[in-house]
Design a protein that fits this description.
Strand content: 25-35%
Number of helices: 3
Low-confidence stretches: none
Number of strands: 5
Order of helices and strands: HEEEEHEH
Radius of gyration: 14 Å
Largest sheet: 5 strands, antiparallel
Helix content: 25-40%
Strand order of the largest sheet: 4-3-2-1-5
Structural class: alpha+beta
Shape: globular
Length: about 120
């Protein structure tokens, strides 16, 4: 997996390209919850951190984590907004234990999910 350097993730965000990070999973008796986040550039100068919890509905042939049902359909994700990139990153690290060295470009979260499937 190619993770973005600190400079690359800030460049992506300033250019309006979202970044994402696989956080964890939580197993229950008959289902698993996947946890991940996404940081987007909204209208200048706002950046949003979206925290997502969804059911693990995929397999090696269906990796589209964006299509998985949210745990709470009324609130499929939690969004917090910030005035700059550094505030958004600090929040993601402090609140969700994200790692600045494990962000991927948008769309690559599916590769992270694939690695999770192969490791379980």
């Amino acid at each position: 997996m190619k993770y973005l350097s600190s400079e690359q993730l800030k460049t992506n965000l300033s250019l309006g390209k979202p970044i994402e990070q696989w956080l964890s999973h939580q197993k229950h008796d008959d289902y698993t919850i996947l946890k991940w986040l996404r940081i987007d550039k909204e209208k200048d100068p706002t950046y949003s951190v979206s925290y997502i919890e969804c059911f693990d509905e995929g397999d090696e042939d269906f990796l589209d984590i964006y299509e998985f049902a949210p745990v709470d359909p009324d609130e499929p994700y939690t969004i917090n907004s910030f005035s700059n990139i550094n505030e958004a990153l600090t929040f993601a690290i402090d609140k969700y234990q994200a790692s600045e060295s494990r962000f991927v470009a948008a769309g690559m979260i599916q590769e992270e999910y694939k690695e999770y499937l192969m490791a379980r």
